[in-house]
Design brief:
- The complex is a heterodimer of chains A (about 350) and B (about 1000).
- Chain A has about 350 residues and is mainly α.
- In chain A, about 70% of the residues lie in helices and about 5% in strands.
- Chain A is elongated.
- In chain B, strand 14 and strand 15 form a beta hairpin.
- The chains are: A mainly alpha (about 350), B alpha+beta (about 1000).
- The interface between A and B is large, with 41 and 63 residues.
- Chain A: InterPro entries: FIBP.
- Chain A: One of its GO terms (cellular component) is nucleus.
Chain lengths: ~350, ~1000
């Protein structure tokens, strides 16, 4: 006796969250059944392995049919074939677009092209995530990227509107799209200690302050690209490092203000010029695409690592950065206050987030 | 020219890409009705076209309005080559033809293609302007309402139940026409879909005419079926029960004035027919006779006096006193005469209803069934319905005579079915012989006072169990005892019926699904030889099915079966029998005896030991089942009963017959001769197998119950979560081990595994009950067995269930008073003591829980209200409102039941009767047979829901998948499936929403009536 055909169709589509997770994780039906058996479900329910097999197949088939709709989530809401309660629809979408931290690490800042797709095999081996799941995650990134690429308006809003994701997930996708578009280097060994959350945080700050949409909401342009004009203007900040008088004055202002308030005062005093030069140079170099890509590497190299080697506590870093950025207002010879504030506003936030072990 | 049909094509969405170059589509729409076609403009380059067309107007006869479907075709415009069809939508406009149903059809319909499935959606608005037509000679029957529901629909009251209507139409099957060889599969499928749609319309119209002639205004329990006879044709046939229904206005309109039944009776003549449109012409117009000439059974006009003479077993009414009690006697006799005269006017006193207004059903005799084997290639004139009409008439005649033999005048819960394999066709009919109260059958001519006295007498809860036949002249050997409830009348020890459990029946414990499954191998043969072989096998199959049912019933410790449905399926090389029913313990019937096992070789010691071991196992199972289903009947000492009760015995109540083409009727005694105790003799391995198979049926996991009736006896606290589903399984038998035994085992495993899978899948709904579990078996090929199951899972409240068990007997004795029911005008409320379905739930719930000392009414109510929301639409309303309210899809519930728990049906919008064909030539690409059928069934559900939503409804009740014919050819990568579904589109309102409304009504009224109800219980 062999089963030729075995289906179950409910008027309300049954969604088993556990099976959905297994499916999303890219397990084959056989593996999924084995994993379910191991979860002890047979003992709980008194079912047989055959029942489990049939149930898993059914769910997989349903998910397979739903996948087409999940590629354009608004379709899932409007379609008539599957009657799914809204809360379940939201769950299906949210889980489908969720991604693994380990995976996103590997592709963050990379071009979402076919070439990278070939690397998925390697990523799968490296991370232990099944190739199928890697594909889904990669395709999700690419799909979102493609849809919002040419769109005007807020990046997060666009993603939310077209993919019906939760606020949190939409922000993450905004970061991924932003990184992919600007091709920030994240793969260097130096950056290994950072989490996706750190990058996403920085991306959000940069979208808020460093893109075209940020300065002029009237312009209503895209959030994806950094403001070229702003990057160009930042060359002007170079004087802060190049002009020795200005640098000395800046240092004395900061040191006076922080005297007695900083645990690592002497280290700060000794390193001030190096640190300041580093930060100013990062800003001034951003006109070149390559330097934009290396932004995070530079920040870690020029600021995070020196401070860390001197064991600055985070609170001291905060004090320092606040004072460092505020003191510039007292530099009489410096005319680009607004520019400086825009730059340091973003940078301070990023550095504080990046500064950890 | 009495009607104007208006159609407007608004927009399309999610269309498929038809032009690969642009990834877009240039779509336009053809709207066709009859022979008239209109076209919209081409909407260039869009997958979401906005046609916003003018109103296309069709001026048509109402006859055409009834027969023809509206056909909407979406096409892709192509300048250089032929336009490509994207897909079609067929809209049945029948619901627009009766005044009380839908007024407009408007909504998104899936665009369906028989090869590609659903391809986008189209928004259509349809309206009908009907002109009042005073032409007395018309052929149409607009205005007659149709219901699939096999009880009086919830917002109606039955004034008169007229009786049986049937009709049958035949046509050539397009699939077998010569042209099919040259046309595409798509064209062939569409021709078939369209033809069946036309035939259904015609059939419905003809049945409507019969109803009008009987002066009815509705058909209830309408069951339409297709017989794909192959070469000899395509038959569409339907049966139903003609009624005069009265629409109930809102419950508030019924003031205490109509408290007494007699008053209500007097009102009948005045509001008999609220709709002037439905008035039929006089009974003897020549044209009408002409329409009738298609059918041999002129149900109404034919005089009955002749038809009964040949039946020797007609009960003598004069002897009624023998079986009736002292007081009941004269009334019973009177009643019998009345009923008889009322029913004798009909050729077939059959009713397709399975649940009845209170007091309608007086006695139940037992199941009657008839089968007949026919050869389709012997039909002389295959294109005409005469032969098939004669076949069915013959079978119905048999059923009628069986009912007579049981002392009954009527057959209720009547249904007909066929099974076809090549040129052999088995016709089956079955029902429950019954004695009915004439009150509902006549035009209110019965004297009021007599009526009331009868009412008092008959409204005892055990009345229907009392034997209708004469004790001294029993049609078969049976064992009778005095009724365990009233102690006055005789009852049988076991009762089998095809109807639902009457609302007022007293049941102890819970019920359960009982199935008998059987396979018999048969030699492949041709024509006559084949028919004879099948005819010879049938009696054995019936006998065995019946024995299995009886054994399983006893094993469950129960004494009655409801909703019995025996399906015999014929295949090339085997016959399959599947009987499903719901077993219960009726308090009025005696406790069933156990099962004794006897060996044939008593000298063998080890054998003896084995036997006793088996016996112990059986006894343990019975004890366990009694506990599981909470069967603890109150102990009754024998003195009280008054008559010595001998050893409990079982007797068959199933009278059946079968005949082959030669019309020879064989009577089969299924009652195990004169044996006293129910003994299973184990004389060979076969018998051993049987006993084993008895014990292998696994009870459902805890928290699960199942039944094939509308509701589960013993559970009455349904919450509102429902899940209707269809599950299909096909197994391939390995041809090596084809013995009867192996076959039986395979089939048994198939059914058991299927049930196990269902329990597993629906485990999140626990505690829940699978209701209306409907198994269908077919044998699509030599070694394939296909089982299709449709059912609904309904959750219930565990806390209340526990409470019920505590006071199980007490509670089950409780029931809403008759007065209360009459007042509220819900004569067919199927669970009169089920709280959610009661029109005034909060008050009643409060009272009831207070009366049963639960002490936590408020908390309980909170639970019920909360439970109502997670079903989806609760959330839905809250969520969908803000961003895209206009675009989200409304929830449409589907259920095979006639009601929706926790809700009240406020309007019936018309019947849904849809037929779809799906074919593929890329089976593998679509996920194999499972993927193909899974997608197709999901699409069918979607199309049903879309039609209901377009009618303005939010649910389908009495939903049934009547046919699911699946054929595959994996070698050619092809498969085809035909599905036929039907149901009633309705609007329902959640009772929690209703509370707001009802609180504005004079609550004192209902409160007093409820209190009254408490007093009388």
């Amino acid at each position: 006796m062999t089963s030729e055909l075995d289906i179950f169709v409910g008027n309300t589509t049954l969604i088993d969250e556990d099976v959905y997770r297994l499916w999303l994780d890219g397990y084959s039906v056989t593996d999924a059944v084995a994993l379910r058996v191991r979860s002890g479900i047979l003992e709980q329910t008194g079912a047989t392995a055959a029942v489990l097999q049939s149930d898993t197949m059914d769910h997989y088939r349903t998910f397979h049919m739903l996948e087409r709709l999940l590629h354009a989530p608004p379709k899932l809401l409007h379609q008539l074939i599957f009657q799914i309660p809204p809360s379940r629809q939201a769950l299906l979408i949210e889980r489908y677009y969720a991604f693994d931290e380990a995976f996103v690490w590997e592709v963050l800042g990379k071009k979402l092209s076919k070439g990278t797709k070939k690397d998925l095999d390697d990523i799968s081996t490296k991370t232990g995530i099944t190739l199928k799941s890697c594909r889904r995650q990669f395709d999700n990134f690419k799909r979102v990227f493609k849809v919002v690429e040419e769109m005007r308006g807020s990046l997060v809003d666009n993603i939310q509107q077209h993919f019906l994701l939760s606020d949190r997930l939409a922000r993450d996708y905004a970061a991924i799209v932003f990184f992919a578009n600007n091709r920030f280097e994240t793969g260097k060994k130096k950056l290994q200690y950072l989490s996706f959350g750190d990058f996403a945080f920085c991306a959000e700050l940069m979208i808020q302050n460093g893109t075209l949409g940020a300065v002029d909401s009237q312009m209503d342009d895209m959030d994806m690209d950094l403001d070229k004009e702003f990057l160009q203007d930042m060359k002007e900040l170079k004087v802060l490092a190049a002009d020795k008088d200005l640098l000395d004055l800046h240092k004395s202002l900061v040191c006076t203000a922080l005297l007695g308030k900083l645990g690592v005062f002497s280290e700060m005093e000794a390193n001030f010029k190096n640190l300041s030069r580093g930060l100013v140079n990062v800003a001034a170099k951003l006109t070149h695409n390559k330097d934009v890509r290396d932004l995070f590497v530079d920040l870690v190299e020029k600021f995070v690592e020196p401070c860390r080697s001197d064991h600055w506590p985070l609170s001291d870093v905060r004090f320092f950065l606040n004072q460092y950025s505020a003191s510039v207002h007292s530099l009489d010879g410096f005319r680009h206050q607004a520019l400086w504030d825009r730059y340091m506003g973003t940078l301070r936030g990023c550095l504080l987030r990046l500064y950890h072990d | 020219m009495p009607g104007k049909l208006k159609v407007k094509i608004v927009a399309g969405r999610h269309l498929p890409v038809m032009d690969r170059a642009s990834d877009l589509t240039d779509a336009f729409v053809e709207v066709k009705f009859g022979n008239t076609t209109f076209k919209t403009d081409v909407y260039l380059k869009s997958l979401n076209p906005q046609w916003n067309s003018e109103w296309f107007k069709f001026e048509v006869d109402d006859e055409d309005l009834q027969d023809e479907p509206l056909q909407i075709t979406v096409l892709d415009h192509d300048t250089y080559s032929a336009n490509d069809a994207i897909g079609k939508v067929y809209i049945d406009i029948d619901p627009l033809l009766y005044s009380e149903a839908a007024t407009v059809i408007s909504g998104w319909f899936p665009i369906y293609d028989t090869i590609h499935g659903i391809r986008g959606e189209i928004n259509v608005v349809v309206k009908v302007d009907l002109f009042n037509d005073l032409n007395r000679f018309r052929q149409s029957s607009c205005g007659v309402k149709f219901f699939c529901t096999t009880s009086i629909p919830k917002c109606y009251r039955a004034v008169i139940i007229h009786g049986f209507v049937e009709e049958l139409v035949v046509n050539e099957d397009p699939e077998y026409q010569w042209i099919d060889r040259i046309r595409t599969p798509r064209a062939s499928n569409e021709a078939r879909q369209r033809l069946i749609s036309l035939m259904s319309g015609e059939l419905q119209r003809k049945i409507g005419l019969k109803v009008l002639e009987m002066r009815g205004n509705a058909v209830v329990g309408y069951l339409q079926c297709f017989d794909l006879e192959g070469e000899s044709g395509l038959v569409v046939r339907a049966i139903g029960t003609a009624c005069t229904l009265d629409k109930l206005s809102s419950p508030a309109a019924f003031l205490p004035a109509c408290n007494s039944p007699s008053k209500e009776m007097k009102e009948i003549p005045f509001n008999e027919d609220p709709n002037p449109n439905t008035h039929s012409s006089g009974p003897s117009t020549p044209l009408k006779n002409q329409t009738y000439s298609f059918s041999p059974s002129k149900s109404y006009s034919r005089q009955s006096s002749s038809s009964d003479t040949d039946l020797s077993l007609t009960p003598k009414t004069g002897m009624g006193s023998g079986s009736a009690g002292k007081e009941g006697g004269p009334f019973k006799a009177l009643l019998r005469q009345q009923t008889q005269s009322a029913l004798e006017q009909r050729e077939f006193p059959f009713f397709t209803l399975t649940a009845f207004p209170p007091g309608f059903l007086v006695h139940v005799g037992g199941v009657v069934s008839a089968r007949s084997v026919k050869l389709l290639d012997r039909i002389h004139n295959p294109d005409e319905p005469e032969t098939r009409d004669a076949w069915w008439a013959e079978i119905r005649q048999e059923i009628k005579s069986h009912a007579k033999a049981l002392g009954c005048h009527a057959v209720v819960g009547y249904s007909e079915s066929t099974s076809i394999c090549e040129e052999v066709c088995i016709l089956s009919a079955s029902g429950t012989a019954a004695v009915l109260n004439p009150r509902f059958l006549q035009d209110g001519t019965v004297e009021g006072c007599l009526e009331q006295r009868l009412e008092e007498n008959l409204s005892t809860r055990c009345g229907f169990c009392h034997i209708p036949y004469d004790e001294l002249n029993m049609p078969f050997p049976a064992h009778l005892t005095y009724c365990y409830n009233c102690r006055k009348q005789k009852v049988p020890d076991v009762l089998f019926t095809t109807i639902d459990l009457p609302t007022d029946a007293t049941v102890i414990g819970k019920g359960c699904l009982i199935q008998a499954r059987l396979c018999r191998l048969k030699k492949k043969a041709q024509a006559e030889a084949n028919a004879t072989a099948i005819s010879n096998l049938l009696p054995f199959m019936e006998y065995e099915v019946h024995t299995q049912l009886m054994n399983k019933l006893k094993l469950k410790g129960m004494n009655a079966l409801f909703g019995l449905r025996i399906q015999i399926t014929v295949g090339e090389n085997m016959l399959m029998g599947l009987a499903s029913a719901t077993g219960v313990y009726l308090a009025a019937l005696p406790t069933p005896g156990g099962i004794q096992i006897a060996g044939k070789t008593p000298n063998d010691g080890s054998y003896e030991q084995h036997i006793s071991h088996m016996q112990k196992k059986i006894n343990d199972t019975i004890a366990k089942n009694k506990e599981l289903y909470e069967i603890n009947p109150p102990e009754i000492s024998e003195e009280i009963i008054g008559s010595p009760i001998p050893e409990p015995r079982q007797r068959s109540r199933l009278l059946r017959s079968q005949s082959e083409s030669s019309d020879e009727v064989t009577e089969l005694d299924l009652s195990h001769g004169k044996k006293d105790a129910f003994v299973l003799e184990i004389d060979d391995t076969d018998a051993m197998e049987d006993v084993h198979s008895l014990l292998t049926d696994v009870p459902p996991p805890s928290g699960f119950y199942s039944c094939n009736t509308e509701i589960m006896p013993g559970i009455n606290n349904w919450t509102s979560e429902i899940q209707m589903f269809t599950s299909v399984r096909v197994i391939r038998l390995s041809s090596l081990n084809l013995t009867n035994q192996a076959l039986n085992k395979n089939f048994n495993d198939l059914c058991e595994n299927l049930l196990k899978s269902l329990y597993f899948k629906l485990r999140s709904m626990i505690p829940c009950c699978l209701c209306h579990v409907n198994f269908t078996v077919s044998l699509p090929e030599d070694e394939l067995i296909q089982v299709t199951v449709t059912a609904v899972a309904i959750t219930f409240d565990k806390n209340q269930a526990l409470q019920t068990t505590k006071t199980s007997v007490e509670k089950s004795l409780q029931r809403a008073s008759t007065d209360n029911e009459e007042l509220l005008q819900f004569p067919l409320e199927l669970c009169s003591d089920s709280l959610p379905s009661h029109p005034f739930p909060p008050v009643k719930e409060h009272l009831e829980s207070a009366s049963s000392n639960s002490g936590i009414p408020a908390a309980q109510r909170a639970v019920t209200v909360e439970k109502a929301s997670p079903v989806g639409d609760g959330n839905f309303r809250n969520r969908s409102a803000p961003p895209c309210a206009n675009s989200t899809v409304g929830v449409v519930k589907m259920t095979p039941l006639s009601f929706i728990p926790g809700a009240k049906i406020t309007k019936y919008l018309g019947i849904i009767n849809m037929f779809f064909i799906r074919e593929t030539t890329s089976l593998r690409e679509e996920g194999g047979v499972s993927g193909f059928l899974h997608a197709f069934i999901a699409e069918v559900f979607a199309m049903v829901r879309a039609h209901v939503a377009a009618l303005g409804g939010n649910a389908v009740v009495s939903y049934i998948m009547k046919q699911c014919v699946f054929m595959e050819n994996p070698n050619k990568n092809q498969a085809q499936c035909l599905i036929n579904v039907s149901g009633d589109a309705v609007v329902f309102v959640r009772e929690s929403d209703l509370e707001v409304v009802s609180s504005q009504q004079p609550t004192t009224n209902c409160q007093s009536s409820c209190t009254e109800g408490e007093v009388t219980t």
